[in-house]
């Protein structure tokens, strides 16, 4: 059982991207910060907005990179190196094309599955894939040539509501994730459907 010391929410910076599917991971960390009253502030040396607080009585840092998605590793690498946080003490929340809106999965390690944020984090962590991922389902457009426009677009209202419900469900389990009860959380989340 590994405790989580850093929770990262992936997205793109700027108001034009704030409501796009690709920012689902950032939405989760924003909601988490609000839920635990952890203020997020811009730290240029960590290339993102960071916060620190107690989750389930454990010291935890939150990070939303302010780099573009394909440079997410820059922020993760900077904070992990500075605070000596190991890859298996990191949880990365991100949008996931391979699962439908309204579903959410927790997993440890694996490839990047074509996700540019994960690809850059793996590269920055010296090809280590041992971090945890909170995969927030956004669905797939059905054609790989439409993926870029799809992830950078806004979800229709019913899908957005389903994504928000999965984020709420993840918030209910975050204390258990942070304290290393990953198998228990996987069972709960994997059976959840908004």
Distance between the termini: 28 Å
The fourth-level CATH homologous superfamily is Peptidyl-tRNA hydrolase
Order of helices and strands: EHEEEHEEHEHHH
Structural class assignment: alpha/beta
The CATH architecture assignment turns out to be 3-Layer(aba) Sandwich
Task: Please sum up the structure shown.
The chain has 194 residues and is an alpha/beta fold. It contains six helices and seven strands.
Please, could you describe this protein's structure?
It is built from 6 helices and 7 strands; from the N terminus they run E-H-E-E-E-H-E-E-H-E-H-H-H. By secondary structure, it is of the alpha/beta class. The chain has a single domain, classed as 3-Layer(aba) Sandwich (Rossmann fold), CATH 3.40.50. Strands 2-3-4-1-5-7-6 form a 7-stranded mixed β-sheet, sandwiched between helices. Helix 1 crosses helix 5 and helix 2 (72-82) packs parallel to helix 3. 43% of the residues are buried.
Index terms:
35% helix, 21% strand, 7 strands, Rossmann fold, globular, alpha/beta, seven-stranded mixed sheet
Helices and strands, with pairings:
Elements: E1 6-9, H1 24-35, E2 41-43, E3 48-55, E4 58-65, H2 72-82, E5 90-96, E6 104-108, H3 116-124, E7 132-137, H4 147-151, H5 157-178, H6 182-190
Parallel strand pairs: 1-4, 1-5, 5-7
Antiparallel strand pairs: 2-3, 3-4, 6-7
Helix pairs in contact: 1-5, 2-3, 5-6
């Amino acid at each position: 059982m590994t405790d989580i010391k850093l929770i990262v929410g992936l997205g793109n910076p700027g108001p034009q991207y704030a409501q796009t599917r690709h920012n689902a991971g950032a939405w989760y960390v924003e909601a988490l910060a609000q839920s635990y009253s952890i203020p997020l502030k811009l730290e240029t040396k960590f290339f993102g907005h960071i916060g620190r607080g107690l989750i389930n009585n454990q010291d935890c840092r939150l990070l939303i990179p302010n780099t573009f998605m394909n440079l997410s590793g820059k922020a993760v690498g900077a904070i992990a190196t500075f605070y000596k946080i190991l890859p298996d003490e990191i949880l990365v929340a991100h949008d996931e094309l391979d699962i439908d809106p309204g579903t959410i999965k927790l997993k440890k390690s694996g490839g990047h599955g074509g996700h540019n944020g994960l690809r850059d984090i793996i590269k920055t962590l010296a090809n280590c894939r041992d971090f945890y991922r909170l995969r927030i389902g956004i669905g797939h457009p059905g054609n790989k040539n439409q993926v870029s426009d799809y992830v950078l677009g806004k979800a229709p209202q019913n899908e957005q509501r389903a994504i928000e419900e999965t984020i709420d469900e993840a918030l209910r389990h975050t204390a258990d994730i942070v304290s290393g009860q990953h198998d228990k959380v996987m069972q709960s989340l994997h059976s959840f459907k908004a």
